[in-house]
Amino acid sequence: MTYHTTQLGLPDSLSVEVRGETAVLRLSRARKRNAIDRVMAEGIDRFFGELPQGIRAVVIHGEGDHFSAGVDLSMMSESDASSALFGSRSIHRVLEKIEHCTVPVIAVLHGAVIGLGLELAAAAHIRVAERDTFYALPEGIRGIFVGGGAAVRVPQLIGVPRMLDMMLTGRTYGAEEGVALGLSQYLVEPGEGLAKGLELATQISTNAPLSNYAVLQALPRIARADPDVGFLLESLMAAVAVADDEAKLRLRAFLEKRVQKVSHG
Fold first, then answer.
1. Considering 17, 139, 176, 199, which one is annotated as catalytic?
2. CATH superfamily placement of domain 2-205
């Protein structure tokens, strides 16, 4: 089912298609390399603020040749310090809705993943990159600074020294380097990213909802917490998850050998 943007209160620069229990949010501003302007950002915020009913995973994809070439710089050329500050904080709130979404979010990447485009991808939980993907943070050579959360999220993926290099020199990373560094978890051939993203979304949707919620909401916070607090939160989350009726059914199925054991290859 494809929703018309007006049905969800979204701008024409976004489109939504529901495939089973997965919603595909498509950046649809291909003529601008899916550069993100204020209207698109507000639409993303609105979409994640109220997901279509019954959705258990979201896939974000870019129309055309690129995922997103970043922020629409025409917005910034006239900005003063005050508007830039509040604009950055507004983008933070939008991307936090993705990072803290109650269902898994998969970003399917191809072509340019630059600036705010990389910040958007970094807020997702899983990233699938096609081989033509390249990553860049050119803010430093443009005389500006990242403002969509890259200073927090990207070093968690690749480390501070590599991000420093990207910003100071304009260095780019290709898809193969990106998967080795942690910018993506999956690497696929050109044109195969959306199918892989949907495959992962379908697989993830078969997990117990409470287990998925625990992974999404608790794991990142545990990783950032003081170790003693993290250990306690882990124990509390483990206790809540194992007490769920769905968990009991799945554990019983495993013990009764009605499901396969984990294997590799």
1. 139
2. 2-enoyl-CoA Hydratase; Chain A, domain 1 (3.90.226.10)
